[in-house]
Specification:
The chain has a two-stranded antiparallel ribbon. The two termini are about 40 Å apart. The chain has eleven helices and two strands; from the N terminus they run ααββααααααααα. With about 325 residues, it is mainly α. The chain folds into two domains: about 110 residues, no CATH class; about 200 residues, no CATH class. Helix 5 runs antiparallel to helix 6.
């Protein structure tokens, strides 16, 4: 995903510069043709020439006054709309475009690969110096919470071992809280402790790694906020090009959700095979159906937490049964 973003942005910079050069060349050729035509014509008298100059100056003033001001910070797409590549050309600011092609270095590429972001930029916001107190704080959080997760896993293993002797529903109830806490701790370790630690070491100032997932009032809202970096990547490289191609917002969102589920369900497929893989792909349809029936607000937030608590416990039981049957 990072390499795709890197190639896409540099591809857009290259085409914007080439299109601008071609446009400037066309203007120069047109001006030369006009000058040649003027030389061939006979010069008018001085009085008529002065009158014409005054008229031209007045017309130019009126034109400049009527023209709407343009934003100098953003480079518009100079490629014609008939070009098939036009929907895939991103808007790039004038300041960033000046950095191309000097940004094509090994150092710049490896900084982007290590940086806590998925969207490539020609110039990243950085902090002036590293704050070692924050680095130590996030490092302590990371190490201590990893040990807490290990302890919770050891607490869950005896419950799973007794699953064959007792009812599965009772096992599900006993596993709800520890598995939900393990999931939330894992979320905090990666998206808060680790990514902030990495961002502080690399002086990366953009720290919006996740949104307020705890306030999500639907499953779809949760998927939008739980990984902001992935959401930004999908919006920039998938959603906006599809909208420019003429797709409706509904179908563009559905394509983004399906592709997002494919990325995440690919990892689940090896552990849970076809059942959870199909469940992940059905989440966009299931989420929209629940929004129509229950709606948003407190009921939606209650349903979201019910989903977080019980689905992870059920997934743990299913994984245990799958591994037990595979080994036996």
């Amino acid at each position: 995903m990072k390499l795709f973003s890197y190639a896409h942005v540099n591809y857009c910079c290259r085409h914007l510069l080439l299109a601008r050069e071609n446009k400037c060349d066309d203007k120069l050729l047109a001006e030369e043709d006009i000058q040649d035509d003027c030389v061939k014509e006979e010069l008018p008298e001085k009085e008529e020439e002065n009158v014409n100059e005054n008229i031209c100056n007045n017309e130019n003033k009126e034109i400049t006054e009527d023209e709407s001001p343009q934003d100098n910070n953003t480079v518009t797409n100079p490629i014609s709309k008939d070009n098939k590549l036009s929907p895939f050309i991103l808007k790039i600011s004038e300041e960033h475009l000046k950095l191309y092609p000097q940004n094509l270095t090994i150092k710049n590429l490896y900084y982007f690969i290590m940086a806590p972001t998925l969207c490539y930029e020609l110039d990243y916001p950085v902090i002036p110096k590293r704050r070692w107190s924050l680095i130590l704080n996030h490092l302590i959080e990371f190490i201590s919470l990893v040990y807490v997760m290990i302890a919770l896993h050891k607490y869950s293993n005896p419950i799973l071992a007794k699953m064959e002797k007792q009812n599965q529903f009772l096992t599900l109830i006993q596993l709800c809280i520890p598995t939900a806490v393990i999931y939330l701790i894992g979320f905090y370790i990666y998206f808060h402790a680790y990514l902030n630690l990495l961002g502080e070491i690399m002086k990366f100032s953009d720290r919006e790694f996740y949104g307020p997932v705890w306030n999500s009032d639907s499953i779809l809202d949760y998927w939008r906020n739980w990984n902001k970096r992935f959401t930004q990547w999908c919006k920039r490289h998938l959603y906006i090009p599809l909208i420019k191609l003429g797709w409706t917002k509904f179908w563009a969102q559905e394509v983004v959700f399906v592709l997002s589920d494919l990325f995440h369900a690919y990892a689940y497929y090896f552990a849970f095979k076809k059942i959870l893989f199909g469940g992940m792909l059905a989440q966009p349809l299931f989420g929209r159906l629940l929004e129509r029936i229950i709606g948003r607000g407190r009921c939606g937030n209650f349903l979201f937490w019910f989903y977080i608590i019980f689905t992870h416990a059920g997934a743990s039981i299913f994984l245990y049964e799958h591994l037990n049957n595979k080994l036996s």
